[in-house]
Model the fold of this input.
Amino acid sequence: MNELVVVGCGTVVPEPDRGASSYFVRIGETSALFDCGPGAVQTLSRLGLPWATLDALVITHFHADHVGALPGLFFAFKHGLYEPRAEPLRIIGPLGTAGFLDRLAAAYGDFVLDPGFPLALDELPAGHELDVGSGIVLRSHKTPHTEESVAYRVDAGDASFGYSGDSGPTDTLGGFMRGVSAFVCECSLRDDEVGDNHLSPGRVARIAREASPNLLILTHVYPHLRRVADVASLVEAAGYGGSVDVAYEGMRVALTNR
Ligand SMILES: [Zn+2]
Ligand SMILES: [Zn+2]
Done:
């Protein structure tokens, strides 16, 4: 079963019903976690997802709401497994990921770089692709958010998945995501308040029209926007006519192309 499970879809704002950014993707026998924001480790366990046997961790950028739970995950790998793991874990991130992990290890301890099983690190520059085996190809794309920030898409036979990470306005993200099965896209703030480092319903509608996914999943919506408006309706009103949903913790979506 090829599927996406939303682990965390919140923002930097603490909320009772959602942790920060984290998405579990399973394609065939391969499982990956895209971002690992605060709350992710407990939520993986609560949702019954196989955190201990993840094949890959994929990081979009180094903001704490996307990587804040990594130390806890590595500590769990090191000390929280009844049966120690032997299989390697692949870590894929933008340029600078090696230095980022070194700094985490300097702060938290050697277990970050030596959790008791091999780590394989791939820094994937924006605009590059990586064959991760089993017919799965991961591609990265620059997003205007932080110096290192990227979006990703995964293509594997008749399954595909796209994730914006965090992004400011962009004319190229829609084309990059063209035709994905499920497109998880940040939609942080209202059109009249958003700055140059996030997306809003109007910006998302333009990107999604070009991407034309089977399903657009809005995420990273700040609570003050979600409370006062149906964000999906705002994206539709801005001109997007495809299927659109708002992410929630535990949401499961089959990843199958049309
Ligand atoms: Zn960010
Ligand atoms: Zn964020």
Residues 97-108 form the longest helix (12 residues).
